[in-house]
């Protein structure tokens, strides 16, 4: 499977890339300064500044939440609610990273959505059968490759949805979104060791679930 | 799709011992998280057990595949409209309540409770001080620095009158040529029964001013001044002991605090009043804050919880 269209979150384009740690730190620092300035403007009453933050983070946030709840509409509602909560409590932001703060809010909202879904079970993940929700592939991708990629994404989503939600959160934050262990520990409120344990156990569980489809991932 | 993955490891031989191998250790090794103390053991597993090696390889493949998951296109835009912003911002009261419900104001609740308790203590303390203040009903006469009252009677000199004491009683004409204090129409004789906690009003009711009236026939000591019980005032033969009691009672009556009789308040009275009023105000403020915080937390608890970490939410 070739490189897909995953858009890295703003300021985190070199996640887990140890080749240029200084460049990554510099990018993160710039991102934080920019975010703090926008938050201050938003607190001063400039809605445009807050909407700039929304523009910067809405793709990232939706991609994160949709992997947690595996339902586009529910994920969209959760992201909207997360931005509402963010705007409501913007004066509570005193942290270093707005992205981490926003991610925590989104995770909590996604958790609420998952709880709601548990209480009212419906068709679990109808989106998997819907090809239209996948982004258009690059022009160079052949129809076969596109089909393979869709298949790989589908089995990964299916496996991800079946593992423990704590493990899923940790894996999505680490493997998909590129946060480091400490950031995940801060966001989820657990120890560093717990984060690592969740990731390793989650990968083991995924490997079990994907046992028959591992060849698909090697394409 | 995979990087750092060499492809499927050929499982030429099945290791029967693999079931006993630590899969989590292999997972840590594959992720590069194995500690220095377990690194050699993990390496030995991967080198000597083909299934452990395959497991490590598969785990790396899963991780790299997750990183390449396609981005899912969002179905709509999440920008806030001005109307939504206005609704979310709310009015002053709503913002205040939301701030009180925020985690950083958690300390305000015990502080409000402490303020309420402190206010109550201050008010009670102020009230207690009033009860035992000099000149008040709660303090015995001999504690008030007026033992001279008895001696006055013995010497036949007028009882010293405390400032403002004369304002208590408006002399009125009484039968028998004496002037009684206002309201002194009846009452128990002081010499026979002394009330345990006499109040200035009671004292005023129980005594007559014999000094201001004409001397009664066979009056005691002739022309001595002081107060005697109303019931005894007309009696001509009052003993010296009776006069002693009369003098003491008169001194008690005269020792009424100036503030209570309309004179300028003394500093101690002001302090007592400040303690009571201030204590009540602090208690009321604390109670109001406590109620406000409780209401705010109930109303905006969900919003506050959104900002906490998921682990905190689980533990609640």
Sum this structure up briefly:
The complex is a heterodimer of chains A (219) and B (316). Chain A is mainly α and 219 residues long.
What this model shows, in words?
The complex is a heterodimer of chains A (219) and B (316). Chain A has 219 residues and is mostly helical. Chain A is 67% helix and 0% strand. Chain A has nine helices and no strands. The N terminus of chain A is likely disordered. With 316 residues, chain B is mostly helical. Chain B contains eleven helices and four strands; from the N terminus they run H-H-H-H-H-H-H-E-E-H-E-E-H-H-H. In chain B, strands 1-2-3-4 form a four-stranded antiparallel β-sheet. In chain B, helix 5 crosses helix 10. The N terminus of chain B is likely disordered. Classes of the chains: A mainly alpha (219), B mainly alpha (316). Chains A and B meet through helix 2, helix 3, helix 4, helix 5 and helix 6 of A and helix 1, helix 3, helix 4, helix 10 and helix 11 of B.
Number of helices of chain A: 9
Low-confidence stretches of chain A are 1-15
**Global outline of chain B:** elongated
Total DSSP helices of chain B: 11
Q: How much strand of chain B?
A: under 5%
* Rg of Cα set of chain A: 18 Å
What is the helix fraction of residues of chain B, given as a range?
A: 40-55%
β-strand number of chain B: 4
Average pLDDT number of chain A: 80
- Strand-pairing-aware structural class of chain B: mainly alpha
Principal-axes geometry of chain A comes out as globular
Spell the H/E element sequence of chain B.
Answer: HHHHHHHEEHEEHHH
